[in-house]
Amino acid sequence: MGAIAGHSGFVFDDADEPTPALSLVGREFGNYRLLQLLGEGGMGWIYLAHHLRIGRRVAIKMLRPELASDPVAVRRFFAEARAVNRIDHENIVEIHDFVHNEHGYTYLVLEFLVGRDLLTLLESDTGLPLARSVDIMSQVARALAAAHVAGVVHRDLKPENIFLTEHEDGSDYVKLLDFGIAKLMCTSASPRLTRAGTAVGTPNYIAPEQALGADVDHRADIYSFGLILYELATGRRPFACADVVETVAKQVTEVPVRPRELDGSRDIPVALDDLIMRCVAKRAADRPQSMEEVEAALRAIRAALDGDEPIAIALAPEPSLASVSFGALALPQLAPAPRRIAFGAAALLAIGLGGLSLGRAIESGQPAAHAAAAPPAEAAPPPAQVLPPLAAPHRMMGPPSSDAPPRHHRRKAAPVAPPRAVAPPAVPATATAPTGRYDIIPVY
């Protein structure tokens, strides 16, 4: 058979023992023949295939046979197809069909893309121009906006799931991939595939509320989007740790250093710096409230980079971590997570394979409720913002916005009552933050 070269140069050699995945190469499934194994992950395998009748190339995402007998795994697998087809957007990979046949094989048929994912680009390029980074993320913002309008939250946005093909003029054409753990909002009929208290996502890009196992909405995607934008703008991840649990803890408890305050030669625009920091706010209410708002800010930044007249965008005051209260985290030690191999073929990442499910327990408290404090006699200075140490350099580079200006409410003076002798009220015992078991499932 000889060696089979994948689109990224990854080679499977027939000198090795045939694997179950390789054994399917050459077999026919319905109207498709599998031509080449492009990659594999925790839930299944990706193949290049062609339609026997019309000759069209497609990607086949095959669920592992041992999982095909699990009804929950099958429902999650097909939920990706339903989520993608519900959105129907040009910047989201197309899924043509999904099959569960009598022989126990379960697979999706997707469009085959030629190009590479954003992670591969970041690792191979010495520096992306900011203008190109903004163009790429603007397309991601449009795709996510369409998903959110359709009631779909991606929940696993990361560079591996942003695939870059090309327009005829050579410019980047983004395809958003892997809706395998997407959540359908406002759909009571949809089965709940993730139990309460389970966090599903990738530690380097997971939102705080998602890491704590709380219910999430579209603003979790905005947080992940901000972290990717941070990486594009600065060339490093804000929370780069070898340990999975430490990474998740930082996502929950630490405010990253502002991009403009990091050492480096890049001249990051103030508007981009402000947008990034708003997107990565710990509280969902402090982030931009829609991807349309984020995309509008990116358009303004792009115009400024081109030297055009910048668009004025009103910014709400930047929140600090001191306004966020979280329960105590009891974090067990985990071994460093293995690094995912990035493949250049669209189909490989297109599709995400649901990743390697590393279940790890995080004994974590729910975010503590904000206590109502008595109004102070005079304004106190704002608490200092918590800043982490500089993250280790990763490798790479690539938006301001609340349309609502801050409101100022006039507080009525409380009537002063004459002093009188009153017995001090009993002070209840301090309630400890509830703790519970949370599973974090990193997806690589």
Structure description:
- The protein is an alpha+beta fold.
- Helix content is 24%, strand content 18%.
- It contains 10 helices and 17 strands.
- Strand 7 (95-100) and strand 8 (106-111) form a beta hairpin.
- It is globular and about 55 Å long.
- The two termini are 30 Å apart.
- Residues 1-15, 186-198, 310-377, 384-416 and 427-444 have low confidence and may be disordered.
User: What is the chain-wise order of helices and strands?
Assistant: EEEEEEHHEEEHHEEEEEHHHHHEHEE
Give the helix level as a range of percent: 10-25%
- Indicate the proportion of strand residues: 15-25%
Shape: globular
Query: Low-confidence segments, ≥5 residues, pLDDT <50?
Result: 1-15, 186-198, 310-377, 384-416, 427-444
Radius of gyration: 24 Å
Tell me the layout of helices and strands.
Elements: E1 4-5, E2 11-12, E3 28-29, E4 32-40, E5 44-51, E6 57-63, H1 65-68, H2 71-87, E7 95-100, E8 106-111, E9 116-117, H3 118-124, H4 130-149, E10 152-153, E11 162-166, E12 172-176, E13 183-184, E14 198-201, H5 208-211, H6 219-234, H7 244-253, H8 270-279, H9 291-305, E15 329-330, H10 346-349, E16 360-365, E17 435-442
Parallel strand pairs: 14-17
Antiparallel strand pairs: 1-2, 3-4, 4-5, 5-6, 6-8, 7-8, 9-11, 10-13, 11-12, 15-16, 16-17
